[in-house]
Amino acid sequence: MKRQIPLAIVIVLGFVFVFYTFVPHKILADDVFNWYMNWSYSMAPFGMLLGVISLVMMHSVKISRKLPKWQFSFVTLGGLLITSIAGFVWGIQPGTPFMWIFENMQMPMSSTMFSLLAFYIASAAYKAFRARSPEATVLLVSAIVVMLAQVPIGIMISKHLPDVSQWILNVPNLAAKRGILLGVGLGSVATSLKILLGIERSYLGGGD
Amino acid sequence: MSSKRKVSLFIVVALISLLSFTLAIMATDDDSFIVKNFKVIDVPNDDGTGLQLSWTPLPQAKRIIEYRVYRGTSPDSMFMLGSIPVNVKTGISGDSVFYTDKDLNVLVDISNPGELKKERQQGPKSPLYRDVPRDIKVLNPLFSKYSFLSIIPKKDFYYHTTKTKAPDKADSTMYAGLKLRQLTLLASLQPNTKYYYTVVALDERRQFHKYAPIQMGIPMENPPEAVPRFNSVYVKDTNKMQFEWDLPLFKGDLAMYKIYAVPAVAQAAFDAYRANPITGQPAPGMPIAGGQIDIGSTDSYNLTTADLTGMPITPANIANFRFSLGLTDYAGNETLSPLSIPKVVLSSQLPPKPQFTVKDKPNDKGEILSLTWNKPFVYLTQTNFLSSSRKKLLINYMTNVNSEYKMKRLDFEISELNSDKPFKTIHEYYLDNKIIVKLPNGYNPEKGLKVKLFMVTKPAVPKEYVFEQELNFNSQTRSMIPADLMLQGKDVNTYSYVIYKKLRNSQNYNLAKKLGGNQNSYEDNIRYEKDIYKPVNYFDTKTNQVLVSGDIDITYDKKAKAVVQTSIYADEAKKLMDKQKNKIEQQLLQYRSMLPQIKDPQQLAQLQDQINKTIARQEMFKNPILMQSLQYTNNKSRMHFVASNREKNKRQATYQMVVTDGEGMFAVSDIPKDKDDEVVYYAPVPNWFDKSKVPMVVSSLLFGIMVAFMIRKAKLGHDLFIRPIAGIQEIDNAIGRATEMGKPILYVPGLGSLSDVATLASLAILGQVAKKTAEYDTRLIVPCYDYIMMPVAQEIVREAHYEAGRPDSYDKNNVFYLTNVQFAYVAGVNGIMIRENAATNFFMGTFYAEALLMTETGNMIGSIQIAGTDAVTQIPFFITTCDYTLIGEELYAASAYLVREPLMLGTLKAQDYFKFLILFFVILGTILSTSNLTFLINVFPEK
Question: In this predicted complex, what is the ipTM?
């Protein structure tokens, strides 16, 4: 029963949403959909609670067992506690302590992480563009053409460079992208079908 | 006095002075946040329900983020009315800030507090409160000061009201009682009532500063504004006048319009009266037309026709007349427009009467009616030279094809501007909205081009239906600009189409849409009713309820030509019917008693008409739907019956179309009528199947059949070859490596939620990886981004440990929630990766910009990395930084590949065959389209 009931819910509701795609009637488009959305909204806070419990448990264990770098767990738990208190007591409107924490701590830290991406891309590009094989050479040449076409010097080198770059992006690049997307689309349908028919059950925990 | 004492005294005095100075500065500083020049004035030309507030904005240095406006009916208690947000960086650039308190605004809804709450940081004596609370005791004193309207969700009104007596004992009517949480309360100002206002500035620290001095305002009833545009046209051969005008900005109070004919010689006297009109005194002119202006209408457009038969205006003396439009509001104030000199035309010069068809839009949920008229249109929109030598020209075009036609082909004939011989003819089979034209050698495009546009349609358009458009060179933009679109020598956009709509239970036709001359269809949205609007009759402090009338329309009676009303309470419905019957009988008696006294035959005819209409209205009491509704004893089933009938009736509409040049040259369509000369009303129908998705259903079924066939084949023991995928084959080795090294494995399930297919595929792979790690007794760390996914992942890993016979080694703290903030998650994962020194990293699922940050870190610490994602933009990063990458669909195939069960393999194999089928259609479609055969690509939907 522990498996059958969730499986039945998934299959029934899954087919309801398959019908939702093909049936534009108000009953499905409005009534059933809104009913489902209300359910999903009401489920989210419980999921959040589980997440917070998991986080607290993991870090409590780390602190109690004095696992490596256990001191950082205090920072995590402290951050969780302070942000929650700020949000619950003063609200989350602009000007409140919660928003101050968000704007002056979380946003700069997120931006810092994001800014690292530029250096990581340079490092990845270096690895990718090393002309070790014919394929890598093609990659290198294409990359140089596309990069040069983006900057003023490109058109000074050759007036055809932007056209070549556009061709690379529109023809081989787009063809490869569409090929992948076609596979992804079909794979999604196949996976959905497997879930709908109960073939794929791993999301219920375990393989069968 | 000793020197020590002197120093101490000096310090004390200095400290006190400093403190006083600081307090004084702080006090001055706070006062400087009070807005200056705060004024409240009456809104001009309105119905007496509007006041305008203005004040000087504070300087940008004050870092204001919001001005809050408070309103009250006394200066002792004022509630927040609204706010004006301010960009803290730029401030407000103008000299004044304006706020208009007009029309119905939300006063109380579910978000309002349950009790009175003082505004923040305003001190105990402040009269300022936050929003009006959801408290009947607070609202009751406001009842006489505002006009209230409630918005009630229809189900609450049908089924969840309490039948309640009016608090006023003189009123014996039973009302529908609702709690404040069940409705939204709107309120508008009342004329000649005192209202008090103030403004508070909020700075970026969210400090509420002192409120501005309270100002009082009284909204006054004003005469309406004159129409901004009024045109008159005299049709000589039919002796009719046509008038067209725009309504002014404030039109909610407009009741009537009247058109006056004024002799040209009396123009000066008319203008003098117009400048100083006298209420109650008729305007100096001959009324020739008039009518009502619908209150609920939001249109800004109107027109009418006046037959001049029997009037002293003739083709001979029309030049001696001028015309003016008078607008009258409900208070009887009339405003006249400036005099218009009529344009004299023949009826043949007017546009032809428009004809249109109304149909239900197919494949929708039943909210749209499609109106179609005219044949298809094609027109050029813009052009671009494709080379610096200006030899190649890219021309963009647009088509307007309504559902009555199907466009099969477009032909373009391009010629030099002064030539009829085309130098290029293009047949466009696939309408991609662009053509490329190679200009003749030596032709200077600055001379201009001419394009003739032909169309091949089903049903076929006449041969002479050919559009023509010139392309003129613009020396500033250095491009060819399309000129006006001509059809048989006439500019298509001279006339526009105006659509009027009338709902079954409405009295008037209202403006639905005004469309350009090159349009030929309109989709009118007739929404399902969600809320019911009811004026508030009482605030009942005893029962804590808002009382509204329980009467509701149930249907429209054709014989009575009236909307039939009933009550939402079964027992009250009978009483209501009797009450209405009595009222009509009383009216009839009154009319009949007046009959002998009237001698004027015209007045007599009018009264007789009234009597006939009143007698006809009695028919509504025999209406079968009303009769059936009275049979019900159970209120719930009765209301179900009432609701289904009234909603069906309310969602019916009829239309009328006007084609006009906007200056009085118009023609009005006939009203759609049936054989019995009854007006036809159209209702949108909800559809149970979207026929445009037939190809999708067919391909889904075909795919399903292929899956079933392949599964059966696999079950029968056929060996299904699956292309080896290196990334999946290496999973075992990667786990083995971590085991040998005695280091943990990190499994990152991506940023997707459980509704993403990639995440579900990732969880399937997680199950297999967890089983292996459990067997090898290797620690598996799974940091989760989605808190709903986390318990699922925990369950999967736990089950895997049980299946491997190692439940003791399962630690749920290894599968944990990290955060759902993108870059915080990256920081967390990277930290874990470095601290735990993971030997193997799996990245499976949906990834965005964080992908490279994580995999590059793993690469730096020397982990073996296997990634898989369906995010096309992240695949190159994974390929560069990971050892193995599952590209797109390989991620979905991985679990089947690992399990190798017939069910799974069958699906995978079917997927491959289906891909082959798609490829076949892509190639076939390309070949056929290249050969100008577009039937195949037209079978498939575009999106």
Answer: 0.90
